[in-house]
Design a protein that fits this description.
- It is a single chain.
- This protein is mainly α.
- It has two domains: about 80 residues, no CATH class; about 45 residues, no CATH class.
- The protein contains eight helices and three strands.
- A hairpin with a 2-residue loop joins strand 2 and strand 3.
């Protein structure tokens, strides 16, 4: 069933009521239920690294990507990742030079990984205690392996060192 469209004939009996001062005040104070805004400008760009999330806690945080994007294009207002693609929203269309710089940024894997390391220093690969000349059965190495907060990359490096010293026999 279609939507009924009111005609002038349907609304004619209400005309005397609408001319009353009280009715005019009510109509002026009415707030529209739905307002229409311009849809943001969205551009899809490739992304060379993974983004930090539940599946990849060691990825680059979205807020870092947004900060870098806003340095290159002040009109960038938001960033999202959907189906492996990076979506950048703008308040107004970016200039061609800004688009080129953003595209180059999001394709540069080394620069993006550096941003993640600068933001999260625990991702830096530091020498393990045994590699620095500590005793073979160093309790700090075992503590590092048992700590659930240890990043994966750091844990694998420590485990490799532990395995070579204690588990693998020639």
């Amino acid at each position: 069933m279609g939507r009924y469209r009111f005609t002038a004939k349907d609304l004619a009996p209400l005309a005397p009521f609408l001319k009353l001062p009280f009715a005019r005040q009510v109509l002026e104070a009415a707030v529209p239920v739905k307002t229409f805004t311009k849809s943001p400008i969205v551009e899809e760009l490739p992304l060379a690294v993974s983004v930090q999330g539940r599946k990849d806690p060691n990825g680059v945080p979205l807020e870092v990507l947004l900060q870098e994007a806003q340095k290159l294009s002040p009109t960038a207002t938001g960033i999202a990742v959907r189906r492996g693609k990076l979506l950048v929203t703008y308040s107004k269309p970016p200039e061609a030079a800004e688009r080129i710089r953003l595209d180059a940024l999001f394709r540069d894997k080394t620069r993006l990984n550096e941003l993640a390391v600068v933001r999260r220093p625990e991702l830096r690969v530091a020498p393990t205690p045994a590699a620095a000349g500590a005793a073979a059965d160093d309790p700090s190495l075992v503590k590092l392996l048992r700590d659930p907060q240890t990043p994966d990359e750091r844990w694998l490096t420590a485990f490799r060192e532990y395995a070579v010293k204690h588990l693998i026999k020639d």
